[in-house]
Amino acid sequence: MSRIPIDPESDVVEEHYAVIYAPRRHRDRFPENCVEVVASEELARTKADPAKKLYAAKVVGPSRSSEGLRLFYLEQWLD
User: Fold this and answer.
1) Would you kindly state where each structural domain of the chain is located, as residue ranges?
2) Is 55 helix (H, G, I), strand (E, B) or coil?
């Protein structure tokens, strides 16, 4: 279950496959500049490169934070 609700009537916040730059994988939300949304799970897995700290994931977002940042929330790592 996502930390943020997904409105089926809107396409503002959606589930996506992505590649996330994550120096440490203990976080569950990431700023937009650390997330590259991709078209498919397969593409996310292909673009992942742990040596460069790039990991395939399923995310929800973007959602605006109270600080005004656009954030993506981790649903699951794809490894």
Assistant:
1) 14-77
2) strand
Local structure of 49: helix, strand or coil: strand
Would you list the DSSP string of 1-25? --SS---TT-SSSEEEEEEEE-SST
Reported as a single tens digit per residue, the pLDDT across 9-46 is 555 579 999 999 999 999 999 999 999 999 999 999 99
Q: What is the pTM of this model?
A: 0.84
Upstream peptide bond of 62 is cis (omega within 30 degrees of 0): yes
Contact 42, 15 (CB under 8 A): no
Confidence band for 47, pLDDT divided at 50, 70 and 90: very high
CA–CA dist 15, 11 (Å, integer): 10
